[in-house]
Amino acid sequence: MSQQFDVVVIGGGPGGYVAAIRAAQLGFSTACIDEWKNDKGGPAPGGTCTNVGCIPSKALLQSSEHFEHAGHAFADHGIGLDNLSIDVAKMLGRKDTVVKQNNDGILYLFKKNKVTFFHGRGSFVKAADGGYEIAVTGTANESIVGKHVILATGSNARSLPGAPFDEQKILSNDGALRIGAVPKRLGVIGSGVIGLEMGSVWRRLGSEVTVLEGLPTFLGAVDQQIAKEAHKAFVKQGLKIELGVKIDKVTSAKSTVTVTYANAKGEAVKLEVDKLIVSIGRVPNTIGLNAEAVGLKLDERGAITVDDHCHTNLPNVWAVGDVVRGPMLAHKAEEEGVAVAERIAGQHPHVNFNTVPWVIYTSPEIAWVGQTEQQLQAEGREYKAGTFPFMANGRARAMGDTTGMVKMLADATTDEILGVHIVGPFASELIAEAVVAMEFRASAEDIARICHAHPSLSESTKEAALAVDKRTLNF
Ligand code: FAD
Ligand code: NAI
Q1: Tag placement on the chain: N or C end, fewer CB within 10 Å?
Q2: Does any ligand 2 atom lie closer than 6 A to the CB of residue 190?
Q3: Is 360 in the pocket of ligand 2 (CB under 6 A)?
Q4: Dist. CA 326 → ligand 1 center (Å)
Q5: HEC string of the chain?
Q6: Of the ligands numbered here, which is closest to the C-alpha atom of 286?
Q7: Which atom of ligand 2 is nearest to the CA of 329?
């Protein structure tokens, strides 16, 4: 007789594991199935985010930023260092330890919340009495039944046609996080989030990095004033960024990779590199779910079709995170996972897509929430804009990190904040205030009237709010 659960979650990434914990908190008997294996074949829940995404990339960004500071910024503070070196193996080992801490943390949370964890692949067998029969294959081999099923199977890196990932020379995010020695020449295709973050890591450690981007605009989804400022900073740091290229082919030799492409002028160019990261977006993953067995509907991109409440075309089957529409972000997946568990419990949660923050963890960091100036212009909405440069912020000057600005956009009539865009130090942390403000539908004046600690970077947000009304105090 199959084990029966109120809720079975397939996928243990940020969407799935959080959904499972919330479902268990709400009193449901809950199982979570995840197939990710660590190097020893053991369970490694946490999905892309924990194993080959958010967490390891931030670990390497931190290590490489320390290296860059030690090499370039410490001297300004009067700190001298001789014989600075980088031990790449140790840096990667530290990253692996951080990943394992997170894997273990999730297994602990499952125990604490009484979520039954199955290490293996979950596939639909059939609609069964009282729910759906799910086969688990792998380390665990079981047949279980879930009254409700939450699908959180994530996404995979998209490869270039004719250039499959070999993870030795042509790298996805996975290989990009495991390069064993600093490559002399690193190519990156796609100047999106992964390209800029991973390109920054290896540039800081000494690689000559060339980023090839298909679109003519740098960071097209980002407010263009912010994108231009970031572009300027990246180029100054030594990242070579070519926009408007058309990749022709990628050929791999023994120890090099050659990318043949047409540049923005249409000229044919050959770029030879030692490693090539291909970061041109990700595709939803439903491999192994056996979606056909139950008639689960997918869209033309291969994403699971869901309504605004993450409900699929099947009764009591839900889907969240990268495998459905919307931004491919860990915190978006988590919010959807929690919301689905609460809906199953009869509650009425809401995920506000307009206040999902974005962060690019480069240096300077880029973070934003809400609409860009270009989007407001395209909508024909009347708005006011205020900017404040970190150059005029006392804390930023004391830190020696004055690149960038905070920019606030507010409705011309009501003063409601419509978007906040930051490029500069700790933008990832500063954006939280803007998210809270927008969730509470604050006006720029609300932020301008709030007391912010001095000296702090957050004063720049207050000053940007004052700038909306053309009355900055410190600029
Ligand atoms: P995933 O995290 O992909 O998890 C899906 C899980 O399901 C995996 O463990 C997979 O093995 C498992 N699975 C799939 N099919 C089955 C099956 N049939 N049976 C059992 N298990 C299955 N987002 C941010 O918000 N911030 C960041 O800083 C950030 N950095 C990133 C850096 C990189 C390099 C990458 C690649 C991504 C990054 N992301 C970041 C995106 C983030 O990782 C994803 O948005 C997030 O992981 C999506 O969560 P998910 O739960 O939908 O899917
Ligand atoms: P992306 O969508 O951010 O960027 C892909 C880039 O590649 C785009 O600029 C696109 O125009 C370009 N491109 C596409 N096809 C191309 C081609 N054939 N030739 C040249 N350029 C081409 O995708 P990326 O960087 O792969 O990351 C995937 C997703 O992972 C992100 O969109 C994001 O959702 C998530 N992520 C989030 C992070 C964060 O929150 N800090 C960090 C890393 C990833």
Answers
A1: N
A2: yes
A3: yes
A4: 14
A5: CCEEEEEEEECCCHHHHHHHHHHHHCCCCEEEEECCECCCCCECCCHHHHHHCHHHHHHHHHHHHHHHHHHHHHHHHCCCCCCCCCCHHHHHHHHHHHHHHHHHHHHHHHHHCCEEEEECEEEEEEEECCEEEEEEECCCCEEEEEEEEEECCCEEECCECCECCCCCCEECHHHHCCCCCCCCEEEEECCCHHHHHHHHHHHHCCCEEEEECCCCCCCCCCCHHHHHHHHHHHHHHCCEEECCCEEEEEEECCCCEEEEEECCCCCEEEEEECEEEECCCEEECCCCCCHHHCCCCECCCCCECCCCCCECCCCCEEECHHHCCCCCCHHHHHHHHHHHHHHHCCCCCCCCHHHCCEEECCCCEEEEEECCHHHHHHHCCCEEEEEEEHHHCHHHHHHCCCCCEEEEEEECCCCEEEEEEEEECCHHHHHHHHHHHHHCCCEHHHHHHCCCCCCCCCHHHHHHHHHHCCCCCCC
A6: 1
A7: 34
How much distance in Å is there from the Cα of 450 to the middle of ligand 1?
Answer: 37
Q: Is the CB of 172 under 6 A from ligand 2?
A: no
Q: Which CATH number fits domain 355-468: 3.30.390.30, 3.40.50.460, 2.60.40.10, 3.30.450.20?
A: 3.30.390.30
Residue 1 pLDDT greater than 80, yes or no: no
Assess whether the C-beta atom of 36 lies below 6 angstroms from ligand 2.
no
* CATH fold for domain 3-157+283-351: FAD/NAD(P)-binding domain (3.50.50)
Fold classification of 170-280 (topology level): FAD/NAD(P)-binding domain (3.50.50)
Structural domain spans, the chain: 3-157+283-351, 170-280, 355-468
Dump pLDDT digits (tens) for 372-407. 999 999 999 999 999 999 999 999 999 999 999 999
Cα of 467 from ligand 1 centre, angstroms: 39
168 pLDDT above the threshold of 80? yes
